[in-house]
Here is the input.
Amino acid sequence: ETGVTQTPRHLVMGMTNKKSLKCEQHLGHNAMYWYKQSAKKPLELMFVYSLEERVENNSVPSRFSPECPNSSHLFLHLHTLQPEDSALYLCASSQEGPNSGNTIYFGEGSWLTVV
Amino acid sequence: GQNIDQPTEMTATEGAIVQINCTYQTSGFNGLFWYQQHAGEAPTFLSYNVLDGLEEKGRFSSFLSRSKGYSYLLLKELQMKDSASYLCAVEDSNYQLIWGAGTKLIIKP
Here is the structure.
C-alpha cells in the first residue's frame, strides 16, 4: 500500500463539468505536489505546496485550481477542461519542500479523460 | 533550455544485463534521481546520485559523471517484473526537478 493515496483512480468528465481530484499522504511529509503525466512526455510539475502554502505554480491554466487545507491533504479542482487535459495526474509528497536529495513519493495517479 | 534525454524504449532478455542511459543539460546540478514506474502504478524511487561514481543497490546500480552530464541505470539478472518505465530526473541549481520522458523497458523470456 502506497503512503500517498489518490481518488478517484479514473475519471471521465465533460468539458462543462466540475470535478475534483483528492490526494492524501500518510507519511508525515510537509510538502505536496501535483504533476501531469502525458504519454511519452516528461512529468510536468503543476503545483507545489510547502507547509500548506503554495510555493510554485508553473503557469498552469486557471481551469486547474489547487487546494491544500492541511499538510496531509491536497485537492485539484477541475473546471471547464479541454480534451488535451486528458492525462494521468500524479500527486506526490516529500519530507521538506524542494531541496537537495529530497525524495519524492508518488501516488498511483488519477486517470482523467475529458470528452 | 533544460533537457533530459533518455531512450524511448529498450528490449532485453530475462537473465541478462541492461544499461539505460540518461544525459542532461541543466542550469546547475544538485542531484540525479532514477524512478521505476510499472504500467498503471506510481513511480517509485530507485536511486539518488550526487557525487560521481557508481552506487550499487542489489541488482540495480546507478552511475553518475557530472563532468559529462551523464548517468546510467544498470539492471542485472533481469526478471520479468523489471518490465517498466524508468524515469531519470535532475535537480537543477534552484532545486527544480527536471524530468526525462522515461525509458520503457521490455523484458522477453
About this structure: Chain B is about 0% helix and 60% strand.
